């Protein structure tokens, strides 16, 4: 059964960046197959990973809705969509990617969400690690991808406002009935290691802080694929050290 890592946090804190870096470290450590899922409708995980994205799951659902005549006779619509969705997975070098997107067309959202949840549910069984990059709100995580995560990684900046948002997210996780076995906090873009107690107060397990990394910013400004980041980039070295419990399966 796949081990699910889900990213959460306020806008711009570094969720996508960390999702891509965690995927890279799991690959580098040869821990198993990795599926990265971009569940943010403003998807940019593909760029961060340097993987060419295919059609999004949302686009495929729209196409099937617009052209029902393409469904082979005798095949249930769901089966056909599931089959089409298999083609939406980009196969990268050691990391595969599924971009969820957002269906634009009319139709019942419950239905669309169920289809997406089903396909994600199946994929979870086919990979060793599933890393889900979420949008700032967490609604999609429960409605469209999965209600369960082995490791929820909340990313925050060091400000009181940022930490308040992290606390709100932790609350949301229980409100949405998301079952997160381990819940971690990483403080990003801060040189100071200060949040241990603050994390405890919001019932997150504090992993540590990642300092601002000029190399990371340069790579990201130059087109955003983090494969351009050197193996010894400070942000990677620190994440390898403090992130151990994120990818540890127990
Ligand atoms: N430690 C760091 N040092 C330097 N730059 C960083 C660091 N972490 C993230 N960044 C930069 O900050 C920007 C925002 O990061 P990112 O896109 O990962 O955030 P996000 O939480 O996914 O945002 P959104 O909520 O919009 O999806 C990116 O340009 C990224 O390169
Ligand atoms: Mg993002």
Fold topology:
Elements (H helix, E strand, L loop, with lengths): L2 E7 L5 H14 L5 E5 L6 H5 L7 H10 L10 H10 L3 E2 L3 E5 L9 H18 L2 E5 L5 H7 L2 E9 L3 H16 L3 E10 L7 H6 L3 E6 L3 H8 L12 H9 L1 H4 L3
Helix pairs in contact: 3-4
The protein binds adenosine-5'-triphosphate (ATP) and magnesium ion.
Structure characterization notes:
The protein is α/β, with parallel strands linked by helices and 250 residues long. It has a single domain (3-247), classed as P-loop containing nucleotide triphosphate hydrolases (Rossmann fold), CATH 3.40.50. Helix content is 43%, strand content 20%. The protein contains 11 helices and 8 strands. It has helices spanning 15-28, 45-49, 57-66, 77-86, 109-126, 139-145, 160-175, 196-201, 214-221, 234-242, 244-247; strands at residues 3-9, 34-38, 90-91, 95-99, 129-133, 148-156, 179-188, 205-210. The protein has an 8-stranded mixed sheet with strand order 3-4-2-5-1-6-7-8. A hairpin with a 3-residue loop joins strand 3 (90-91) and strand 4. Helix 3 packs across helix 4 (77-86). The longest helix is centred in the middle third of the chain and has 18 residues, at 109-126. The structure holds adenosine-5'-triphosphate and magnesium ion (MG). Residues 15-16, 40, 133 line the site of magnesium ion.
């Amino acid at each position: 059964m796949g081990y699910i890592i889900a990213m959460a946090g306020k806008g711009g804190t570094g969720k996508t960046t960390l999702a891509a870096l965690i995927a890279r470290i799991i690959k580098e450590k040869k821990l198993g197959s990795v599926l990265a899922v971009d569940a943010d409708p403003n998807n940019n995980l593909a760029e961060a990973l340097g993987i060419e994205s295919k059609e999004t799951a949302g686009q495929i659902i729209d196409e099937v809705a617009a052209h029902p005549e393409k469904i082979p006779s005798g095949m249930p619509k769901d089966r056909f969509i599931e089959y089409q969705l298999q083609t939406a997975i980009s196969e990268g070098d050691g990391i595969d990617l599924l971009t969820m997107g957002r269906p634009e067309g009319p139709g019942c959202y419950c239905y669309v969400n169920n289809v997406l949840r089903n396909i994600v549910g199946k994929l979870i069984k086919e990979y060793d690690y599933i890393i889900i990059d979420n949008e700032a709100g967490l609604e999609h995580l429960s409605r469209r991808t999965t209600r369960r995560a082995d490791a929820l990684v909340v990313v925050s900046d060091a400000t009181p406002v940022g930490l308040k948002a992290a606390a709100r997210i932790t609350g949301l996780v229980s409100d949405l009935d998301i079952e997160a076995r381990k819940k971690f906090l990483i403080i990003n873009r801060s040189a100071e290691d200060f949040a241990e107690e603050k994390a405890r107060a919001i019932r997150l397990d504090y992993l540590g802080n990642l300092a601002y990394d000029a190399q990371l910013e340069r790579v990201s400004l130059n087109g955003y694929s983090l494969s351009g980041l050197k193996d010894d980039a400070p942000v990677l070295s620190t994440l390898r050290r403090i992130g151990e419990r994120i990818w540890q399966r127990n």
